[in-house]
Amino acid sequence: MSEPASISSGIAARYATAIFEISKEGKSLKKLEENISDLDAALADSADLRDLISSPVVSRADQGAAIAAIGKQMGLESVLQNGLGLMAEKRRLFVLPQLVAQLQAMIAEDKGEMTADVTSAKALTKAQSDKLAKTLKTRMGKSIKINATVDESLIGGLVVKVGSKMIDTSIRSRLNSLQNAMKEVG
Prior knowledge:
With about 190 residues, the protein is of the alpha+beta class.
């Protein structure tokens, strides 16, 4: 991990831990989870929001006012809204995507869930996704949430990452293995 990315994830981890702990004490993790999902969707959908949190031109006061208005509009939990306000005040809103990811991971761990990053050549159907989640649950011993992406360069098969484990059954990796084996022979 590069140094700036490491610093960003460290900053995000501290804010995420504080927000998570306060929400857990206040027994509002369910609402926090909904808020984080909404915030993640807003970050994915809105280029203006991404520009707001990363622009060095926007002043602290303007960032704080904008994030407060966004939080109010979205109906964010007060703990999360206060955390975002503090981040704006300290010029730390640029780590918002990492904060969202950290909070999602902390909430999932608290619920006894794991997230599996699944990359496939074609979009998985609901039935395929459910069957994969069930299979992974029996292997991992925890409830699995599927985070699916499509990469047509895989040609076929899946690449599944759960925690530190990776299962690669893609045709692309098999072709690469075959190519390497043929180089060794010839």
